[in-house]
Amino acid sequence: MFEWKECYSCNISKIDNQHKRLFELADEIYTIVSVNDGYDHFDEIMEAIKALKEYTVYHFSYEEEVMRKYEYGDLDNHKIEHEAFINKISSINEEEIDEKQKNFLMDLLEFIVNWIENHILKS
């Protein structure tokens, strides 16, 4: 579902590679939601969410450092968007996941798709 395209490139290879990794993490979540085996995937879901959160914290920190270094004019707004993403991932309710795994993951994927469209592609 999540496939990197060259039109997503910001022409900074390290940031592009980090964005590609975010796509991979989102695709892992999509893979979990696509499984129809009747089994509980709570542990896999929690691992995927933890990996997504840890990687985005790392990536956002690096990206903001580069933006500061090159005096990117919209850094403050970019940081606000980053904080909103981290807050969304941090506010995930484990009980909600356990009860409605597919619904939760579909909502999370929708959030990630919107993030990619509005943050990576437009800001």
TrEMBL record:
The keyword Oxidoreductase does not apply. It comes from the Bacteria. Residues 12-122 form the Hemerythrin-like domain. Keywords: Iron, Metal-binding. GO terms for molecular function: metal ion binding. NCBIfam families: bact_hemeryth, hemeryth_dom. Belongs to the hemerythrin family. This is Hemerythrin-like metal-binding domain-containing protein.
